[in-house]
Specification:
alpha+beta, 68% helix, 11% strand
């Protein structure tokens, strides 16, 4: 054959089959672009080496895995539509070796276009994404210049090239193993009628129920984190089983209902058609439902964290400056040094709160708190029974809250941030204490670090002597794992200037350290630095969430598009026969819309149900990050779903029009 024949044939094939090739090419271009952008950002030295860079590197890994899976998945649609053409070429005398050469030329053309356009767009959008990320972080940008990163270009080109090579080898394998007649009928092979499998349908319901139960029933933050991925796997398995076996079972039940099945032509056509192709349809529908759920959960979660930064900040660091000192230094010395340091910076205190406290873990069984870690199986600690116990004496509690307590040595007050105790007494280190008064967490304000994965329970004891006794008992029980008591100091300045607050913060730390020569801090924090850390972490998560959400939405759109195109070609002959036997165009149009609506909006409804059931688990995990603003999270989830549903409806209108053009 003449030189260049295969290249001309390959280019012509791409043009002739542009309805299926151009969307695939667009996806490959966008995937290469986004891989370049995330690779460039994850290697940007100006972003440091902390949480943000780790988050971006994780995003790069997910993007790479996504590119492999998704490009393989979409290529399968192309091969299905092209098999008939390849079979015809084979029958007309073109050997499989020559067909493989045509596929090689097509793949190379697509690869080169994807790399040139994808990396080119990546270079153009790289700085825009960097500016967006800096905007989310609230960071100033200076000295921004246009640049091309050779290392990132090379790594992106290598990853995309390897993916296309694997796709090429898989396509050649399919052509090599198939017989000519199989290739000729490759795009027309339908599904045999699947059997209604009650066992798989019930199993799918059980998997789905188990995932939902874990999300709702497990209220402990640490256990929720540990079991979240178990719940995700259960929901994914349940979704696939219910969409495959469950949908067939439901359709066959509808077919048995004679009034429904034969009552309207649309019911008869849609149910019978869906039964015969449900195995193929179900997997695609399940993929769309799972991708939609991933997008919704990822977007509303990251937006909730981002918009809830102020709530997290106030909960974790309730005042401008926080010092928790574990060294044996007197309260008077500390306060004197603090006031002197603030005066030397020409500032003044507007608020000062302090108390002496001890914090340690206790495992609650009935009205007994077990505190010997050797006595219990450590695996049992990841349950609702584990609490963080914090103790202070009645004098400090009265100064903080105005609530004065007259307590005996065996009496205490309880401030409980979780489910209230039902009993009126408890045992701690084998000592009996009577709970004579309870407070809900919202009834009194105790400034503290709320960044605990487990519920925090405050125990208010009679005086410092009782508190010291418990401190000694705790040290004996926990040994080298024992907690140290701390003097906790919470300060607000009259100024709101960040530079002045940071100067006072540094001056106080230096003054306290110099006062004793060597001083130990359990915690030393200020709102300015903490806000920057939270903005960096949550801004990075939001950026990666939006980035990956865009990828998943692109995948969902392409899956729906190819599904509609494939079914359009399969249904064209069927609807032509229906017109010949007397079905009107209006009835056919109603059948088409009914079928498309069922195929389209079943995954959307499923995604909404999955997202709603995931909400309790997400809130429990976020509680460990001091994010407990449930109304904010509900608003983020609602807005995310409405925006996603609007986009979904646009995709429906566009693909439904293409489907109607094919079958008309």
């Amino acid at each position: 054959m003449r030189k260049g024949f295969y290249w001309k044939l390959a280019a012509g094939n791409i043009r002739k089959n542009r309805k299926i090739y151009y969307p695939y090419l667009l996806t490959a271009v966008l995937t290469a672009m986004m891989l370049y952008v995330i690779s460039s950002l994850s290697s940007n030295q100006s972003l440091g080496s902390g949480n943000l860079l780790i988050t971006l590197q994780l995003g790069k890994l997910v993007t790479t895995l996504f590119a492999v899976i998704f490009l393989f998945y979409t290529n399968s649609f192309l091969m299905k539509r092209r098999k008939k053409e390849f079979g015809l070429l084979n029958i007309l005398g073109m050997g499989k070796k020559h067909i493989a050469l045509v596929i090689f030329c097509e793949t190379l053309i697509l690869l080169l276009v994807s790399l040139v356009l994808g990396i080119g767009l990546g270079i153009l959008f790289d700085k825009l994404m960097f500016l967006l990320l800096m905007k989310l972080l609230g960071a100033a940008v200076s000295g921004l210049s246009f640049q091309i990163l050779p290392g990132v270009v090379a790594s992106t080109a290598l990853i995309i090239s390897v993916i296309f090579l694997l796709i090429l080898l898989n396509s050649i394998r399919q052509i090599h193993l198939a017989k000519p007649i199989e290739l000729l009928r490759g795009g027309e092979v339908g599904e045999l009628e699947p059997k209604a499998n009650w066992l798989l349908a019930v199993l799918g319901s059980l998997f789905l129920g188990a995932g939902y139960y874990i999300s709702i029933a497990v209220t402990d933050a640490v256990t929720s984190i540990l079991l979240f991925f178990v719940a995700v796997i259960c929901v994914i398995l349940g979704t696939y089983l219910l969409f495959t076996a469950g949908s067939v079972t439901l359709l066959k039940l509808l077919r048995k209902d004679k009034r429904f099945y034969y009552g309207k032509p649309a019911h008869f056509i849609n149910v019978s058609g869906m039964i015969y192709r449900m195995k193929q349809n179900a997997v695609g529908l399940a993929n769309v439902a799972i991708l939609s759920t991933m997008v919704l959960v990822m977007i509303f979660s990251t937006f909730s964290l981002w918009f809830g930064i102020d709530d997290t900040l106030r909960s974790h660091c309730p005042t401008q400056l926080v010092f928790e000192i574990t060294s044996p230094i007197s309260r008077e010395t500390v306060l004197s040094r603090v006031e002197q340091a603030v005066r030397e910076e020409n500032e003044s205190l507007s608020e000062e709160m302090d108390y002496y406290s001890i914090a340690f873990a206790g495992y609650k069984q009935g009205n007994v708190y077990l505190t010997d870690p050797e006595a219990e199986n450590l695996s049992e600690l990841a349950t609702d029974g584990l609490s963080m116990l914090r103790l202070m004496d009645a004098e400090d509690f009265a100064r903080l809250t105005g609530e004065k307590a007259e307590l005996a040595e065996d009496e205490l007050w309880l401030v409980d941030g979780s489910v209230p105790h039902a009993q009126d007494d408890l045992y701690l280190f084998d000592r009996h204490y009577r709970i004579v008064r309870r407070f809900a967490a919202d009834d009194v304000f105790i400034p503290s670090d709320s960044l605990y994965a487990y519920p925090v329970r405050w125990l208010i004891v009679k005086d410092r002597a009782v508190l010291d006794q418990i401190i000694d008992e705790q040290a004996a029980a926990y040994g080298r794992h024992a907690s140290k008591p701390a003097l906790c100091l919470f300060l607000n300045l009259t100024t709101s200037d960040n530079d002045a607050i940071l100067r006072c913060f540094d001056h106080i730390e230096k003054s306290l350290t110099e006062a004793e020569g060597s001083i130990s801090f359990r915690r030393i924090e200020n709102q300015i630095n903490l806000r920057q850390e939270l903005s960096e972490l949550y801004g990075g998560l939001l950026f990666v969430g939006l980035f990956l959400g865009s990828l998943f939405i692109m995948a969902m759109i392409l899956i729906i598009y190819y599904k509609q195109i494939s079914e359009g070609y399969e249904d064209r002959e069927r609807f032509r026969i229906m017109r010949q036997v007397g079905l009107s165009k209006a009835e056919i149009r109603r059948c088409i819309h009914s079928q498309i609506l069922m195929v389209f909006f079943l995954p959307l409804a499923t995604a909404l149900i999955h997202t709603c059931f995931s909400f309790p688990s997400v809130t429990h995990m976020f509680a460990a990050l001091s994010m407990q603003n449930i109304p904010l999270m509900l608003r983020c989830m609602g807005v995310s779903f409405l925006v996603f549903a609007l986009l979904y409806a646009v995709v429906y209108l566009l693909t439904a029009r293409e489907y109607e053009k094919i079958v008309a």
